[in-house]
Design brief:
This protein is α+β, with helices and mostly antiparallel strands and 353 residues long. The protein has 2 domains: 7-198, Glutaredoxin (3-Layer(aba) Sandwich); 203-352, Sandwich (Jelly Rolls). It has 6 helices and 18 strands. Helix 3 links the parallel strand 3 and strand 4 (95-101).
C-alpha cells in the first residue's frame, strides 16, 4: 500500500488482503467532523452527475455511503457491483449512495468521459465530480477505492479502504437503516451481478501487480536502451522477458503519465502471472486505434478478455481500462504482446486480476 500527500501520486490498493477498516474509528470521525463543520465536505465537489448538488439538509435522517472512485481503477471496478446493488436494494429505505469521482489520470478529469463511463457501468446514483480533490481532502482520504459509512445523524461509523468486507458492510448498512427508523427491510440481501472486469480477482494465482507505464512511476522496464523520457525514440524489444518485466518495440514517446505511439506498428510486451490482464489506454482524440493481442506469440483463442475477439483483435475507442486476457486454468507465466496498427494511442498502466 502506498500513500502520498500528493493526490495525483496516490496508488490503488492492489494486493489481496489490503483492506483497512475502523468501526467507529475515533480518529476518522474527528477528521470528518472537523472537515464537515457546518456543511458536508461533499459541498467541495466541482459539479454533479445523475443529481443536482446535494446539500447537508438533504442528508438529514439518511444513511449515507460515500464511495471514492476513479473509473479506470480495477480495484474499484470489482467493488462496483456491491455498491450498485446496495443503492438499488436500500435506496427506497433511507440509504443514499454518493460516488465521489477523484481522478487518477488526466483523461479522467474530462466530465464527458466520466459521464460516458457512468452510463456504461450502469451507475445511476449521484456522482460528485472531485477534480480539485476538495472532497478527498475533506474526508482526509488516501485511497481508491474507499467507502465511508455515515449514520442518520451524520456520524462517521465505519470506513473500508480497498476491496473486500462486502458482507460486513451490508450488515452495517442494514443496522444503520434500522437505527434511522427504517422498517420492513426484509431478510433478502442485495443481489450482486458482476460480469467481465467486475468479476472478483483470482487472488490465489495473482503474482503480478499494477504497473504504470509513464516514467514517473514505472518498474521493470527491459528494452535495452532504457527509457528516453519525453522524446520520440525507436525502441527494440528485449525478447523473452522475466516475470513482471515489460518492453517496447517501435517508435514511442514515454511521458511522465503515459507513453504514446509516434507512428504505426508499435508493440508493448509484458510477462505476467494472473488470470486477467488489463491495460488502461486510449486513442487519439476523436479517433479510434486498432490493435491485436497475442499470448506467448499466439492468438488468445479461449483466453481472450471481453475487449478482444478470439483472434486477439480489438479497437480502442474510449480512454478506459480494457480487459485483454482472461486465462483458463492452470494459471502460469505468460508473455503478453499488444500490437498497435494505428499511431497516437496512449497507454497508461497494466492491472491484473
Amino acid at each position: 500500500m502506498h500513500e502520498s500527500t500528493d493526490p495525483s501520486r496516490r496508488r490503488f490498493l492492489r494486493s489481496a488482503g489490503m483492506v483497512i477498516a475502523a468501526a467507529t474509528a475515533q480518529s476518522g470521525a474527528i477528521a470528518y467532523a472537523k472537515a464537515r463543520a457546518e456543511t458536508s465536505p461533499l459541498g467541495n465537489a466541482t459539479t454533479w452527475l445523475n443529481s443536482p448538488p446535494l446539500t447537508e439538509a438533504q442528508f438529514q435522517g439518511k444513511v449515507v455511503v460515500v464511495d471514492f472512485w476513479t473509473y479506470s481503477c480495477i480495484n474499484w471496478r470489482r467493488q462496483l457491483p456491491y455498491v450498485r446493488a446496495w443503492a438499488q436494494r436500500y435506496g427506497d429505505l433511507g440509504l443514499t449512495v454518493v460516488g465521489v469521482h477523484s481522478p487518477e489520470f488526466s483523461f479522467e478529469k474530462n466530465i464527458d468521459n466520466v459521464r460516458w463511463a457512468a452510463k456504461d457501468m450502469r451507475i445511476t446514483y449521484p456522482i460528485a465530480i472531485d477534480n480539485d480533490f476538495g472532497v478527498w481532502r475533506g474526508f482526509n482520504n488516501e485511497y481508491w477505492p474507499a467507502l465511508y459509512f455515515i449514520d442518520g445523524v451524520g456520524r462517521l461509523r465505519h470506513s473500508v479502504f480497498g476491496e473486500g468486507q462486502y458482507d460486513e458492510s451490508e450488515v452495517l448498512i442494514r443496522k444503520l437503516l434500522i437505527e434511522a427508523g427504517a422498517a420492513n427491510l426484509g431478510d433478502d440481501r442485495a443481489w450482486i451481478e458482476a460480469r467481465g472486469a467486475e468479476t472478483p480477482a483470482d487472488w490465489r494465482n495473482l503474482r503480478s501487480e499494477e504497473n504504470y507505464l509513464g516514467y514517473r512511476r514505472t518498474e521493470n522496464f527491459a528494452s535495452p536502451s532504457g527509457i528516453k523520457a519525453d522524446q520520440a525514440h525507436l525502441y527494440i524489444a528485449k525478447g523473452r522477458l522475466k516475470l513482471n518485466q515489460w518492453d517496447l518495440s517501435g517508435a514511442w514517446t514515454v511521458g511522465a503519465e503515459a507513453l504514446r505511439l509516434s507512428r504505426p506498428s508499435g508493440s508493448i510486451s509484458y510477462c505476467f502471472h494472473a488470470r486477467d490482464l488489463h491495460l488502461v489506454m486510449g486513442p487519439p482524440p476523436g479517433k479510434t486505434a486498432r490493435f491485436r493481442v497475442l499470448i506467448d506469440g499466439e492468438p488468445p483463442a479461449d483466453q481472450q478478455g471481453v475487449d478482444v475477439d478470439k483472434e486477439g483483435n480489438g479497437i480502442a475507442n474510449e480512454p478506459r481500462m480494457y480487459q485483454l486476457i482472461r486465462q483458463q486454468p492452470p494459471i502460469v507465466d505468460k508473455q503478453f504482446t499488444i500490437q498497435f496498427l494505428d499511431s497516437g494511442v496512449a497507454a497508461f498502466s497494466f492491472t491484473f486480476g
